[in-house]
Queue: 2 jobs
Job 1
Amino acid sequence: MTLHTPAVERLFVHRRHLVMSKSPAETVALVDYYLEHEQERLAIAAAGRLAVLAEHTYDRRAARMLACLDQLLPGRSSRKTGAGWE
């Protein structure tokens, strides 16, 4: 469960990968709901974990940043040997 923000909404699907709340009252209601619906809660947690492992690891983020640098800086390659990047 997390705060509902545009950034989180761009990366995850509400009630599939995680649950977003817009207010303290909504948080309490969602906590009460998911404490009563364990299987649904566990399914969301499992899907969220898979989404994070597939798309949001440090390796993926670093690779994306290096690819952006490669596009922005002509002649630069993040895949040079000896630089620690592969």
Job 2
Amino acid sequence: MSETGVRADPLAAFRFHVAIDELALGGFSECTGLQLETEVQDYVEGGQNEYVHRFPTRTKQTNITFKRGIVDRTLWDWYSDTIQGRIRLRDGTVAIRDTAGESVLAEWHFRGAFPCKWIGPELDAGQSAVAVETFELCHQRLERRS
């Protein structure tokens, strides 16, 4: 029997934390690409005209994209190493915290990540916006931990 007045509210998406191995990254304003997609193989069975059998095959990971105000060279240096053939795979987490920022409500762990795209800031002398860099990671696996 359920309790009266107890409900589970959806998680707020504005308070999240990103950690990648030992890198000191600062805060990010956006994180997208926490996505998996399983390919499906159709199998048409002879004599069976009511439906087509569908079987799961490989699961693909989408690149994870982060945006932040430029504060240091940490992400740039990691990407620069990748360009020069010094590939360093790293693991990391993206965690959603409660509105007070104290406890983790949901967490995703990615493994075997390396930078595959970097976009520099859009510069405009007519505005006073923050210089934002976009950083994209390819990874081998994404898991939901909590």
